[in-house]
Amino acid sequence: MTEVARRTDLRARISLNLRAVVGRAYPRVIGANREPSWIFFEAFLPLLGIAAYVFIYQALGERALANATDPAKVAEIQANTIYQALGERALANATDPAKVAEIQANTNALIASVVLGGTMVAFWLNVLWSMASQLYWEKEIGNLQLYMMAPMSRMALLGGMALGGMFMTSVRAVSTLAAGVLVFGVVYRIVDPLTLLAVFFVTLIALYGMGMMFASLYLLWGREAWHLSALMEEPIFFASGFYFPIGGLTRVPVWGSAVAIAGSFIPAGLGLDAMRQLALGPTAFGGQMWLFSVDVELAILLVLAVVFLVLARYALAYLEVLAKREGKLTSRHQ
Amino acid sequence: MSTYWRTFKVAAWLGWEMDSNWTEPWLFVLYSILKPVAGAFILVLMYVVFATIGNTEDPSMFAYMYVGNAFFIFVASTLFGTFQVIQSDREWYQTIRYVYISPISYYVYILGRAASKVAVATFAVVVTLAFGIAFLGVEMGLSLADVPVLVAAFVLGIAVLLAIGICLGGISFLTAKHVHGLAEGIPGLFYVFCGVLFPLSALPEWGRSVGQAIPLTYWFDLTRRILVPGTSIDRTLNAYDDLTILLLLFASSLVFFALSVIIFRIGEYVARKAGKIDMTTSY
Questions:
Q1: What is the pLDDT of residues B14-53, one digit of tens each?
Q2: What are phi and psi of B18, to 5 degrees?
Q3: What whole-number distance in Å separates Cα of residue A230 and Cα of residue A129?
Q4: Which of A290, A288, A21 lies closest to A153 in space, CA to CA?
Q5: From its phi and psi, is residue A212 left (phi > 0), alpha (psi between -120 and 50) or beta?
Q6: Chain segment A186-196, per-residue pLDDT in tens
Q7: Cβ contacts (< 8 Å) between B93 and chain A: which residues?
Q8: pTM of the model
Q9: In chain B, positions 86-115, which contact chain A (CB-CB < 8 Å)?
Q10: How far is residue A224's CA from residue A284's CA, in Å, rounded to a whole number?
């Protein structure tokens, strides 16, 4: 029997892992193209949910302006003793054209915030359902044992999944952004595009690093994984300020700041805050709705990216040891 | 009929077990509460941010949004509950071939599986409404005389939702696993056009027409008329009285039931022809 020498030098290992990255990213990109229906389901339909949030701000903005200019409404506001002070301020604001313009500018900025949040929702859902849950899913359908036997690094496998997922999700994200500009007439004032790109990519690396870490943990948690992903939708949308500037949380007394800080551990929250500052200008909302400055947020995101990737490596190694020790790698539905 | 009832009961029990047996009861209750309450809090914070930067509050609008959002939990849960049955049985558990060839109505089986989702959603809606009244000052009222109308509207609203969910299920016979966006996107359609979070008057003219063609718009409007009486929000459906809306809902539920049977049968037929009944899409 002829023995085939297995190359273990650095070049061969790098080449092997790069091929593994491409190999795992490939089905996500090509597979999606083979099912073109996903463009409708994944890119167009989710826009509707975002549109609903846009219309909320529009409806609130229109009512604020109408209340301020309709004498009957003003009288109604004044009659309400609880909101009297605020109503009088609204009235005073309305008689000043500059203030009316300010309300309109704020409404535009809020809608722009929703659109940016909507693009990040696409990535967060991809991280939850196609990164974090993926190893558990692979176990359920019987692929995981093949991955474990293959000679490449498991990090290359997860890296390929992340790259393929980013590519797939970018289509949805770009369509959301385009719809925001074309349909909702959102205006962005980008003064520092390079920093914006840097924040965006560091946010994605941190986000997908977190997904890679969760992939191993989800495998350990078994059946709870699916529920955990479902649980990390609305609560994270809320805590990370996907549909409103996260600084708004700090306006809520007692628990607001604590939730905002907790939400900041999800890179999407800080990334969104920084991107909103860069896309809308730091003076948007009177500069009172931001959590930290862009520089601080970028620095924290860099740290988070490194930490999550290192933790992902350790979690994978732990999983591998556990799998060998307990022999449960192929046990399904647990 | 007894076979249908037995199928429904067993499927409902199975759905409940699948939904709840993954964890301890207290964690399941927490999970059932946390998700919808967080959804409500997104709206609360959107409102807080607007009120803070605009220096103006609008309690009527807030009550409108809050109640609409609470009842929307039924839409998301019921549609997802019916849509995901085929995909989870086919892709995840890979049991669809066994269930499908058993001598039961697969349509009724899906309805049964969705029943547990409706039950959990009911619990979540009650918790969300109670939370709003107790902690957020949402002004709501319910007179005893309105309870029968509220219950009738609820039953008809859920019937329409189940029928729409089955339509989506019929489509899911033919789609890959990654199209859970369908279950997310269709509720999005209703979120925008049914006056859930904002009055129809905020939509362009064509959007209002779309909204008025969807039965759920009438369900939300009637529910809000009963729970938030005397609101200053223009609902654009003032021309209809309660009874007319109930009749419209009844007629819609019949139409959507017929539609669901047709779409489900077509999806099933095409899937069988194409050999997709038990396909798995691993990517």
A1: 998 888 877 778 888 888 888 888 888 888 888 888 888 7
A2: -65, -35
A3: 9
A4: A21
A5: alpha
A6: 888 888 899 99
A7: 333
A8: 0.80
A9: 91-93
A10: 41
